[in-house]
Specification:
- It holds the Pfam family p450.
- This is Cytochrome P450 94C1-like.
- The chain has a four-stranded mixed sheet, sandwiched between helices. Strands 3-11-8 form a three-stranded antiparallel sheet. The protein has a two-stranded antiparallel sheet with strand order 5-6.
- The protein contains 20 helices and eleven strands.
- It is globular.
- A hairpin with a 5-residue loop joins strand 9 and strand 10.
- The chain is α+β, with helices and mostly antiparallel strands.
- The chain has a single domain, classed as Orthogonal Bundle (Cytochrome p450).
Length: 476
């Protein structure tokens, strides 16, 4: 009876006669586009306001910077994550910072902001990242460099690297996923599956469909619950180990939360949120960056020339200060994320009836999504060369990096919910990029004209990024 009711609701919601909904229903986007985000970009470009409404999903989607500023700053309180969206991710993220509003969000944000702002934490993060690079990442690549039969999946390597790094910085624990033996962890597969299936919930036309499947524990919902069970085991072990050493060493973020929270389930949600932020987004950004480097040797050369000038030829990067002087590298990282943001779109829910700055009426309860991936492809924002990879667009005439309006570039969100780990992530991205480019040439093992993405909460290359590693003269 419940299943029949769900199908009835689905039928009532799907049959809309507008052109956009008919396109969606017929799945014709698959004929023209490899990626769902490219289909959205196509529709947004056709809209004069750069805003569309997908009736079948009850979703208003925008690539208009004025609308983004309105949602994330001007009328922030009227566009929270919302109960509907929180319910979609509740099994995976629970009450973690990315899935809550109000007091729970403010509490987690306050502690995280205080900790990440401390000089000692920044120093620790810089040291951890560079230790992971020197002791694990570089030896791994060196072990396969120059071997034609040795292919590495760089996406997998970066996920392992970022997982080790975030665990050490946030939890004071070392999972050693990037050892030369590349130990396979059940957690990594479970985390990826949970992210994929949770994202698919958001694409379901009627929430009742996945709720019914969860009630009867069938299909994708059964797989999701199995994955979450594995994730919970890891989170519990992290908390258990941290309790053992907490009073002797309180340099990590989790210890600070444990000082005020006794609820194990709540701590579990915080652990998973840290992992999502520190593992998946950084790995996604690094994967896209090196995919672009393989296709733009002129940018790679520019980064190396700048590094020799600022750091010194055949000299190592030893300070955070020198890293900040690498403006072209910084611009290349930003440009990479303009075209391939780790979070391709982000959704809020409208609390009360509202009008966006472009005149779009938003009804109470409507899901409203801003789309960084599409925004990076809008000519009125980035010019007629918006599809080109050009780090120079971020540099002033004196060669210094120029920060664009964050509402044109909401890769780190913007306004009140701007990413607290932004600076730490940029340090990690630039440190890895610099260290690998100065020692190796990384070439795609298979032709890949454009990336194809798998469903998930973060951008993931379908099939990974298989590469061959060529040695370059290492700094002495």
């Amino acid at each position: 009876m419940i299943i029949l009711l769900a199908l009835f609701i689905m039928k009532k919601r799907v049959y809309c006669n507008c052109e956009i909904c008919q396109t969606y229903i017929n799945s014709s986007w698959k004929i023209q586009f490899d990626n769902f985000c490219d289909w959205y970009t196509h529709l947004l470009k056709k809209s004069t306001t750069r805003t569309i409404h997908i009736h079948v999903l009850g979703n208003t989607i925008t690539a208009n910077p004025d609308n983004v500023e309105y949602m994330l700053k001007t009328r922030f309180d009227n566009f929270p994550k919302g109960k509907n969206f929180s319910a979609i991710l509740a099994d995976f993220l629970g009450r973690g910072i990315f899935n809550v509003d109000g007091d729970l969000w403010r509490f987690q944000r306050k502690i995280t902001s205080l900790e990440l702002g401390r000089a000692s934490v920044k120093k620790c993060a810089f040291e951890v990242v560079n230790h992971e690079i020197d002791q694990r990442l570089l030896p791994l690549l060196a072990s396969v460099a120059g071997k034609e039969d040795e292919i590495l999946d760089m996406q997998d390597v970066f996920k392992r690297f970022s997982f080790d790094s975030i665990c050490r910085v946030s939890f004071g624990l070392d999972p050693k996923c990037l050892d030369l033996s590349l130990p396979i962890t059940k957690f990594a597969a479970a985390f990826d599956l949970a992210s994929k299936l949770s994202a698919e919930r958001a694409m379901t036309a009627s929430p009742l469909l996945w709720k019914v499947k969860r009630l009867f524990n069938v299909g994708s919902e059964r797989k999701l619950q199995r994955a979450i069970k594995i994730i919970n085991m890891l989170a519990q072990e992290v908390i258990k180990q941290r309790r053992k050493f907490r009073f002797s060493e309180e340099k990590d973020l989790l210890s600070r939360f444990m000082g005020t929270i006794s609820d194990e389930k709540y701590l579990r949600d915080i652990v998973i949120s840290f992992l999502l932020a520190g593992r998946d987004t950084v790995a996604s950004a690094l994967t896209s960056f090196f995919w672009l480097m393989s296709k733009h040797p002129e940018v790679e050369a520019g980064i190396l020339v700048e590094a020799d000038r600022v750091i010194g030829q055949n000299k190592e990067l030893t300070s955070y200060k020198k890293l900040k002087e690498l403006h072209y590298l910084h611009a290349a990282v930003y440009e990479s994320m303009r075209l391939y943001p780790p979070i391709q779109f982000d959704s809020k829910f409208c609390l009360e009836d509202d009008h966006l700055p472009d005149g779009t009426f938003v009804k109470k309860g409507t899901r409203v999504t801003y789309h960084p991936y599409a925004m990076g492809r809008m000519e009125e924002i980035w010019g007629p060369d918006c599809m080109e990879f050009k780090p120079e667009r971020w540099l002033k005439n004196d060669g210094l990096f120029f920060q664009e309006n964050p509402f044109k570039y909401p890769v780190f969100q913007a306004g009140v919910r701007i990413c607290l780990g932004k600076e730490m992530a940029l340090v990690e991205l630039k440190s890895v990029a610099l260290s690998l480019l100065r020692r190796f040439r990384i070439e795609l093992a298979q032709p890949q004209p454009t990336p194809s993405f798998s469903p998930g909460l973060t951008s993931t290359f379908r099939g990974g990024v298989p590469v061959l590693v060529r040695p370059r003269k290492a700094p002495s």
